[in-house]
Description:
There is one protein chain. The chain is of the alpha+beta class. Helices cover about 45% and strands about 15% of the residues. It folds into 2 domains: about 120 residues, Response regulator (Rossmann fold); about 100 residues, Orthogonal Bundle (Arc Repressor Mutant, subunit A). It has 8 helices and 10 strands. The longest helix is centred in the last third of the chain and has 21 residues. The relative contact order is 0.10.
Amino acid sequence: MDDDELFRESVIRNLADAGFEADGVGDGPSALRCLAGSEKPDVLLLDWKMPGMSGIEVLRRLRGNTIAVPVVFLTVLGEQIYEEAALAGGAVDFVEKSRSFAILLRRIELALSGAKSESGDGTGKQQPAVLERGQITLRLDSSRASWAGAEVELTLTEFRMVQYMVERAGKDVAYRELYDIVHGEGFVAGEGEIGYRTNVRAFIKRIRQKFRDVDVDFGCIENYPGYGYRWRFDDGA
Length: 237
């Protein structure tokens, strides 16, 4: 979805050449109408700046209507504040329009592989629908988390980060591993390691606060300065 018709058509042609079936619309209301139907796209490319309704508002409405289509922002806005807002809102990636189509294509492939991994492990076997460890319950089919029975309002990206740590409870998880969940393996943004560590710390800070909103004594995410984090169970589980 992009209001620049020439750019939109260019992306659609490139995607078609790469073997994808793609369609496009020029404004938010049109996109919402299309997505209200029974057939949903595998991934949605979304611009930020558009007349009438911004891309972030489209994303909010999608998530508010429990439409879980993976969203990749494709925009001229490269400032970190926009990227963080998009990811916090439930987008799976954020790509500047100045990047090559090869980069965009790789990000789309990563978004699609991430969506597939949520419904299966690639072997034809379904993953368990629920992951329970101590006081946390993760519903993998709906990306919902609860702590001691109280729902924790995590974004899709935050949920994936928590799931990754919980599945490796008691083990150290590097900043880089968590960063790759947000951006895709091999992606680099900001100033080297400082850039991606700062990005991960911001996510973990929000995640901790959301758990503390339902339990002021929550302390299961431990920090290992210079390396990363560890999920610790404090109830013996």
